Amino acid sequence: MNSRYLTNALLAVIGGFTVVASQVWVPATFMWLMFSAGVLAVLLSSAAALSGRGNVQRGLDGIIAILGAWTVVASLVFTGSLITWLGFASGGALVAIAFIGLTLHELYTERVVHSIDVRTSAERELSSLGA
Prior knowledge:
The chain is built from five helices and no strands. It is mainly α.
């Protein structure tokens, strides 16, 4: 399994949980959940940036790191209903970025599958004979 798929899927789960948690828990509890989601996003994008990935995915990882850092700061600075909506927006943005990453992963996988050359046994025999 490709690491891009795994990190984007985990990011979608983290973002989705943050969106739901913003509407379920009181702001005092959600503040710590939002803080945890931000830290996980930063750690996930930092660990993913270490492995060999494409330029586009590394760009998405950079955006994830910035959004995760903003989520951490916002969870510690703001209070009340503002933190609820900032957390909702951060979670939605994480889900959107994860969806973009999963789409790019699927497009890359499709390109690889379509580039495989299928030959018949007669064509293989001709190519092995040098004709």
